[in-house]
Design brief:
Layout: E1 6-8, E2 11-13, E3 20-24, E4 31-36, H1 40-55, H2 64-80, H3 82-93, H4 97-121, E5 125-131, E6 140-148, E7 151-155, H5 161-174, E8 178-182, H6 189-201, E9 208-210, H7 215-224, E10 230-234, H8 237-247, E11 253-257, E12 263-266, H9 272-284, E13 296-300, H10 304-315, H11 336-352, E14 354-357, E15 376-379, H12 386-389, E16 396-402, H13 405-413, E17 417-418, E18 420-424, H14 428-437, E19 442-445, E20 460-461, E21 464-465, H15 470-475, E22 478-484
Bound molecules: NADPH dihydro-nicotinamide-adenine-dinucleotide phosphate.
């Protein structure tokens, strides 16, 4: 029997094939557990359960307040399990315990609590202007009714397993949908713990389903399944494009949160200490394995040399080590494969630009068995270089020199991505002017990474389709129905009929 089973129709279950696969601790390379390895037949089971729960069950018919009570309990139970969830998140996916406690579990719980509040407070009807057949004729009342979309397939990445699962599950179920979630294969454990919490809370069977297994089979089966009404995906742009193709034949609604290559523009009047620390926070948080990471620093030439040396000095002080130690600043990368990707890009970077910090796999007693990589900075990067254009998803910063704000904005916008960005400046009006010219979905002025459950997050260009979080993220899980209410039952009073009846 697997250590971790899938969750379908209110019960934990093995894969129909009986297959399982191992998951490993990226800090030590040791095996943690065996997980049930799902296939298409398991997706069929989960979609049938979700379909039945939606088409015949109480969940979509319940009031927002009734659903909110269960969604809120879910958030509260997550919060109560902060220690065990944080530790499991670190053991399965790397990062650090500080991040897991402060960012991952708290955010995950907060998203459930916020969407419980939204389910209670966001109205499911909205008045529209009266409909008038002709100017001067009396209008007829119209209104909108918001309804759940149906069965939602959800596919999440490995970088923030708990947070990404909460971004998917909470808005969908709060709005009355049922879900089939597939977490990333290498970091599935905490999503299965969320399923355990959902089971304890007592959602009707089939409302929450979690199917574990490879993206190429389980993910593809979800994205193409005729019983699925909407697909929500976070991950690479390449797989996002594939999801769109798979969803097209049955015209599913699609929400995609994809890659990024976010720029942080630094003006010459900046507080250098703020810019240095801020850009490193923007780049090296969770080793840069974050879609909105600020991996390109676009720096005014007047402060360029000073900032590069200050950032190099500070990056050298980041402490790599045991991710379960609260004193550790950077844990391991998620996997051997991700480590190899980073190594490959760093070798490219060494040919394209000037390495000023890091550049190697980290070594030392506590590090040799894990996938640790030094925080790495390249200076004198040309924005056309591969390391400035492609998403590395590792601890690698590219610093680009510009002469003025106009060039800075042009460089920032010269990217296939448009997910996020930052402006570092002492002049807030100037910073706002720059921010408003950057073609991305989120921009922070003198900050980075702050995403909240009340604030919509989405990408321009190839960084995504649609929005998650905030009221937009709730509405993204609803269909909008217009209802036209003509109370006049006299056929002669309906002017429109004369368009086909001449007598
Ligand atoms: P993927 O985009 O491949 O994976 C994201 C999720 O999609 C996982 O659950 C994965 O399953 C699933 N998946 C993979 N292939 C398919 C498919 N054909 N159909 C449906 N689902 C699929 O990201 P990777 O983990 O491979 O990372 C590669 C790169 O993607 C990173 O280096 C980074 O650049 C980018 N990335 C971006 C993220 C973001 O937040 N924007 C997050 C993660 C990665 P499985 O785990 O089983 O492969």
């Amino acid at each position: 029997m697997s250590d971790y089973q899938m969750y379908i129709d209110g019960a934990f279950t093995e894969a129909e094939s009986g297959d399982s696969y191992a998951t490993y601790n990226p800090a030590t390379g040791e095996k943690i557990a065996d997980i049930a390895k799902g296939g298409r037949e398991d997706v069929d089971r989960a979609v049938s359960a979700a379909r039945k729960a939606f088409d015949e069950g109480p969940w979509p018919k319940m009031s927002g307040a009734e659903r909110a009570a269960l969604v809120r309990q879910m958030g509260e139970k997550i919060q109560q399990k902060i220690n065990e969830l944080a530790e499991l998140e670190v053991k399965d996916g790397g990062g650090t315990i500080r991040k897991a406690m402060m960012a991952d579990v708290n955010t995950c719980a907060g998203v459930f609590l916020k969407y419980a509040e939204y389910a209670e407070s966001i109205p499911d009807t909205e008045d529209l202007p009266d409909f008038s057949v002709m100017p001067g004729l009396p209008g007829v009342p119209n209104y909108l009714k918001y309804e759940p979309i149906g069965v939602c397939g959800q596919i999440t990445p490995w970088n923030f397993p708990l947070v990404m699962a909460s971004w998917k599950i909470a808005p969908a179920i709060a709005a009355g949908n049922t879900i089939v979630l597939k977490p990333a294969s290498i970091t599935s454990l905490t999503a299965l713990e969320l399923a355990r919490i959902a089971d304890e809370v007592g959602f009707p069977p089939g409302v929450v389903n979690v199917v574990t297994g490879p993206g190429g089979t389980v993910g593809e089966a979800i994205a193409s399944h005729p019983g699925v009404d909407k697909v929500a995906f976070t991950g690479s742009t390449e797989v996002g494009a594939r999801i769109m193709q798979l969803a097209a034949p049955t015209v599913k609604k699609v929400t995609l949160e994809l890659g990024g290559k976010s720029a942080g523009i630094v003006t010459e009047d900046v507080n250098l200490e703020l810019a240095a620390k801020g850009i490193l926070w923007g780049t090296f948080f969770h080793n840069g394995q974050v879609c909105e990471s600020g991996t390109r620093a676009v720096v005014n030439e007047k402060i360029y040399d000073d900032l590069v040396s200050l950032m190099s000095e500070k990056a050298g002080t980041l402490k790599l080590g045991d991710p379960l130690d609260f004193a550790t600043d950077e844990g391991p990368l998620v996997s051997q494969a991700q480590l190899e990707t980073v190594e490959r890009y760093v070798e490219i970077g060494k040919k394209e630009a000037k390495l000023v910090c890091g550049g190697s796999r980290a070594s030392g007693d506590a590090l040799d068995q894990g996938y640790f990589f030094e925080p790495t900075i390249f200076a004198d990067v040309d924005n056309g270089d591969k390391i400035a254009q492609e998403e590395i998803f590792g601890p690698v910063l590219s610093v680009i020199k510009v002469k003025d704000d106009e060039e800075a904005v042009a460089v920032a916008n010269d990217s296939m991505y448009g997910l996020a960005g930052a402006v570092w400046s002492n002049d807030i009006e100037r910073a706002k002017g720059i921010a408003e010219r950057m073609r991305t979905g989120t921009i922070w002025i003198n900050e980075h990474h702050l995403l909240g459950p009340e604030h919509p997050f989405g990408g321009y260009k190839q960084s995504g389709v649609g929005y998650e979080m905030g009221v937009d993220g709730y509405r993204a899980y609803q269909a909008k129905k217009r209802i036209h209410v003509d109370a006049n039952t006299d056929p002669n009073a309906h002017f429109t009929f004369s368009l086909i009846f001449s007598q």
